[in-house]
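User: My instructor asked us to take a sequence, write out its structure as C-alpha cells, and then describe one feature of it. I'm not sure where to start. Here is the sequence I was given:
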Amino acid sequence: MDIWDLHSHLSGVPGRTPEERMAKLLEAADRVGVTKLCVYMGMSWSNDPSPEELRKQNDDVLQALQHWSDRCFGFVYLNPKHVDASLAELERCVAKGPMVGVKLWVAEHCNQSSLDAIVQRATELQAVIFQHTWIKITGNLPGESTPMDLAELAARHPDARLICGHTGGDWEQGIRAIRKSANVCVDLGGGDPTSGFTEMALRELGPERIIYGSDVGGRSYASQLGKVFGTEMANDARRLILAGNLKRLLGPILKSKGIAV
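Assistant: Let's start with the prediction itself. The C-alpha cells for your sequence are:
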C-alpha cells in the first residue's frame, strides 16, 4: 500500500545539514515502504520562536526540499504571537514557495483570535494546517493547545483544513473533543502504539478523518505504522489512513502548484 507520512521532523535525526538528515529519514522510510513525507520545523527549534528563528527553521526545510522535492512536502512553521511575521513567512514559503501546509506548535493556544488571520490566509491558499495538541495530567505548557481549543478554532473557520496533532495525546478525550468538527482530521503520530486508539477513531470518526503520521525523529516509522497495521479494518479504510486522506487534503494545493502525485 502507498504510505504518506504526515508528521516528520529534521530534529532528532543524525546529520550536519538538512540534506544529510533528510537522507537519513528517507533511508529509514524506504525500509518500511513510506513513499512521501511531510516535514516541518528545522534542525533545532524552540517553544516560542522569534521571527528570526521562524525564518531560520523554515529555511532548513526549504533547503531539504531543494534536494528531495520528489519525496517531501514542507509545512511552514509559524508563531501566532508574531502575526505579521507569520503571515510574511506564509507568503514566502507557501504562496511564493514550494510548501503546502502550516505547522503550529505550543507558542499560543489555538483558540486565540491571533490565529484567525493566519488560518484565513492559509485557507485562501488551500494549505493544510497541522496544530499540535496535547492533554497532560501534569499540566500543559503555557501556550500548548488541547483538542478542545482546536474545536473552537474549527468552528470559527469551517472551510479550513485542520489536523489535530497527536489527537491530543489522551486520544479518548481528543477524539470526543473534535468528533463534531467535520473539518478536523486526527493524526496518529507520536505516543506509544496503544491498542484501542485507532479502533476508537474508526468507530467515532470514520476512516476518512484519520491520517497516519510518525513524528520521526522522535518516534520510529515502524512503531507508528503498528497503529494502522495492528488494527482490524477493511483494506479500503487502511488505504485511506495510510495515504488517501492526506492526498485528498493536499490535492487542491498540489494541483495549484502543478505538482502531480
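For the description part of your assignment, you could build on this observation: Strands lie at 4-8, 36-39, 72-78, 101-104, 128-132, 161-165, 184-187, 210-211. Try explaining in your own words what that tells you about the chain.
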